[in-house]
């Protein structure tokens, strides 16, 4: 049985729940008490020494990092639909996994942490960087329905949560109609599930 | 012919040069004038709208992001040695590509930017986060020779440059003997090339 070390309000945990739901996979969700600091103590640190949710176990397989977990689930249980095998198509997906891992995490997701959980940051700079990122993504989506392919892939699943949750960081998507349309397309996928704020 | 849009002092460009050299692949290196801001203007922005080096073209294939470029090259030209196909092994590599993309970029690489190029940051916080990361990596490497497998993979190539360049950010590796040994193992790989600072 897949076990997801989970937290309801984490967009990174949510993206794993979303892929599991889209693939119709059963799993056990184990809530990690972030407010009590459980992610920074054993036994959780044995699953992920970086002290971050999510983590996933699948029998003897133990994985940290939401993007890596998406890759594992897609390859193990999703055929090649959600993660292509051919080099250029795989590279195209990987570009957006990196964008989710760094640019989205450092901008829109950080603004959300600031307003929702009180994390101290330079909000003016983060807001400016967030809108610069949204501008690039909006232009990219102006000529295509999905980020990395002509069908949805884990690139979309990885980038979607914190973009869709932009309002939690007091960021408006109004000027980005192609992003708004893409968010709606994801919400229409068979098996879609939401999270608080989505 | 592979064309790498390149910058000598960029660790992200270097990791691509390193893999190309380890695989014995010929390529054309095209220097992007970062000091003149060429990466933030057309025509470079058409290759990478995020305005960052490296970018790679291979015929009609255009890729941004150093981790995605490593994935493409490894899958297209490296068989399964540098990037395994099996789900758990692939996920294991992906964990470290995310670490390179985010944690290493936000810590040791940022400290280097500060001291080498004068980027304004909260250096005290970044230094603390850098040593926390090095501690986790050192413990991970205490029981294994390579980050993600029993042989070198692109996980090692992705993480190596900015860890190996830690001294540029006035960070010492002295307390991390397993990292130091891993850096030396990478330097012994057939086809290894260095960069200034390595």
TrEMBL record, chains A, B:
It comes from Stenomitos frigidus AS-A4. Residues 86-198 form the GST C-terminal domain. Residues 1-81 form the GST N-terminal domain. The lineage of its organism: Bacteria, Bacillati, Cyanobacteriota, Cyanophyceae, Leptolyngbyales. Pfam families: GST_C (PF00043), GST_N (PF02798). Belongs to the GST superfamily. Gene3D superfamilies: 1.20.1050.10, Glutaredoxin (3.40.30.10). CDD domains: GST_C_7. Coiled coil: none annotated. This is Glutathione S-transferase.
